[in-house]
């Protein structure tokens, strides 16, 4: 098998932030055998492996990644009855539109989310109160620790809000997935997709270099959250009262941080939970802006924000 491994490949073009230094080694996998072959190659050389999907939920450090980055492009999928059988590298958007064509409902909320189904499963991607965990029946996983292929049912995936067993343990690489959807009405499915795209466009617009929401929304039930104090200081926060979490963007916005810039990194004017690369931002600028936001939010409200984006190549 020709693994076609390149050296010193700049990662910025493979991320939606368009930021990041070189991977010491880089390869693209387009089949399960290639993916496993690449992992074995790295392990024989005692190199760490990073599974890269669409690069839309990560910030890669300026010094890059000292190991093998595998861009997972494994493209096969099949829709049968209510199930989608898909390899991890298939774009999430493709599955949304193909399932709509088959009059299957369950993924419409994800319209407009970039990246692969593997990446979406890793971070339990979600929007508008829904997430991918509701549609995942099984995952076929390669465990880098013991070189075995395992099958995880939904429970074993350990899904939580923007979290999963895969996010906690990068040694678990998703090879393929089985999704289960429901039969729906073509007109309604297409309407929901249009609606999701419209809301997304209104909330953060298109074409910005970002990785989506930088911080997780905040659970009301967390020990450090004083609901009475917060809703007293910010009465409009009550609009999130019926939800399990309140918006990190709302909190950041309340500190007047929209438009705040460090170098070419800026808090998006339209959406305070997005940081964008205006043109030539370095990872360092993004990290400094993240630090500044966390410090201000903690100082003013005593809230510890948690990153939703994943940091790659930072020690
Ligand atoms: C404009 C914009 C809007 C966004 N809106 C949303 C939103 O509404 N909701 C939301 O949840 N997210 C959103 N995101 C973030 C991001 O698009 C999603 O989290 C997406 O699902 C990540 O997929 P990816 O393939 O790009 O993952 P990557 O960024 O490539 O990787 C993310 C993580 O997944 C891991 N990973 C990738 N493939 C695999 C695999 N096969 N096996 C194991 N681990 C793997 C990576 O190692 C990494 O840790 C948005 C991003 C942008 C830029």
Describe the structure.
- This protein has 315 residues and is α+β, with helices and mostly antiparallel strands.
- The chain folds into three domains: 6-72, 2-Layer Sandwich (Uridine Diphospho-n-acetylenolpyruvylglucosamine Reductase, domain 2), CATH 3.30.43.10; 77-189, Uridine Diphospho-n-acetylenolpyruvylglucosamine Reductase, domain 3, CATH 3.30.465; 207-312, UDP-N-acetylenolpyruvoylglucosamine reductase, C-terminal domain (Uridine Diphospho-n-acetylenolpyruvylglucosamine Reductase, domain 1), CATH 3.90.78.10.
- It contains eight helices and 20 strands.
- Strands 6-7-13-11-12 form a five-stranded antiparallel beta sheet. A four-stranded mixed beta sheet has the order 1-2-5-3, with helices on one face.
- The longest helix is centred in the middle third of the chain and has 19 residues, at 186-204.
- It is globular.
- The site of flavin-adenine dinucleotide has 32 residues, from β3, α3, β9 and β13.
- Its cofactor is FAD.
- It catalyses: UDP-N-acetyl-alpha-D-muramate + NADP(+) = UDP-N-acetyl-3-O-(1-carboxyvinyl)-alpha-D-glucosamine + NADPH + H(+).
